[in-house]
Amino acid sequence: MNVVFMGTPDFAVPSLQVLLEQGYNVVAVVTQPDRPKGRKRELAPTPVKAEAMKHGIPVLQPVKLRDPAAVEEVSSFKPDLIVTAAYGQILPKSLLAVPQHGCINVHGSLLPKYRGGAPIQHAVMNGEPVTGVTIMYMAAGLDTGDMISNVEVPITDEDTAGTLFDKLSVAGAELLRTTLPELLAGRIQAVQQNEADATYSPNISREDERIDWTKSSLQLFNQIRGLNPMPGAFTLLHGEVFKVWASRKPADDERTNGSAGKVRPGTVLQMTDDGLEVATGSGSIWLTHVQPAGKKAMSVSDLKRGTPIAKGTVLGETN
């Protein structure tokens, strides 16, 4: 059976590896075009392309998969099954109709919740206690196809989007390993999604990254870790971008009052070696790792030794 695999980031690599380890005939890999990377902005292959090249698998990198020429090129490999994982483009109907066993997707959420391009970040940002991976048939809509299998993965207070990406990547590959034989043998009955339960997780926007200090301390804790390791949450310090990479989960008293009192949200309450305490719309939050404009990311204790931030400074102001 000919399998075409479609994926782009690190998240997708374990799924490709499982297909190869289990002896499936991966005849081609489709991934996004190479992108500039690093300070020199040199073109770099996607993680999936790099893995495919190790195994001598042909790699296709169409700019737009909906282009008829791109569909024809993928179809020329006569796929019996297409497997996708975080590919980054919507498959056109003309391609969905090609493989006799259909097109299946390894999606990083428990569908129908968190359809869309950033399910992992949004799950953390919304403070979800659990998420997971769903393997589904691909359809014309955005992550609307029938569900084949799923697995739950807890979200701990220590998780960031980065750690959860890694957990779900491994969980998705293992789910693919156990699901495919059962699916191809006709022993799995796919289930329709309940549209009433559907939620969406669009790609992260610049406004998603901006810290709104009027939100509660717990909401901000989740936002900060949901944007780590990229693109990062930010506020303004003296009118310049001030990245916030990590914070401490607020204790019960910090969520309601802490040292904030009735001061303006965003006001610096104190700066110690333990962090930077900032007033929020409900209580206060301790920032622990930050990045001032033009500098590298650092702990607040390191920042304090070099450029302390005065008590009473209001973060988020344009000047």
TrEMBL record:
GO terms for molecular function: methionyl-tRNA formyltransferase activity. Residues 203-306 form the Formyl transferase C-terminal domain. Its EC number is 2.1.2.9. Signal peptide: none annotated. (6S)-5,6,7,8-tetrahydrofolate binds at S109, L110, L111, P112. Residues 1-177 form the Formyl transferase N-terminal domain. It is an enzyme of class 2 (transferase). GO terms for cellular component: cytosol. Keywords: Protein biosynthesis, Transferase. The keyword Transferase applies. The keyword Protein biosynthesis applies. It catalyses: L-methionyl-tRNA(fMet) + (6R)-10-formyltetrahydrofolate = N-formyl-L-methionyl-tRNA(fMet) + (6S)-5,6,7,8-tetrahydrofolate + H(+). Pfam families: Formyl_trans_C, Formyl_trans_N. It comes from the Bacteria. Transmembrane segments: none annotated. PANTHER family: METHIONYL-TRNA FORMYLTRANSFERASE (PTHR11138), METHIONYL-TRNA FORMYLTRANSFERASE, MITOCHONDRIAL (PTHR11138:SF5). Belongs to the Fmt family. Attaches a formyl group to the free amino group of methionyl-tRNA(fMet). The formyl group appears to play a dual role in the initiator identity of N-formylmethionyl-tRNA by promoting its recognition by IF2 and preventing the misappropriation of this tRNA by the elongation apparatus. This is Methionyl-tRNA formyltransferase. The lineage of its organism: Bacteria, Bacillati, Bacillota, Bacilli, Bacillales. The gene is fmt.
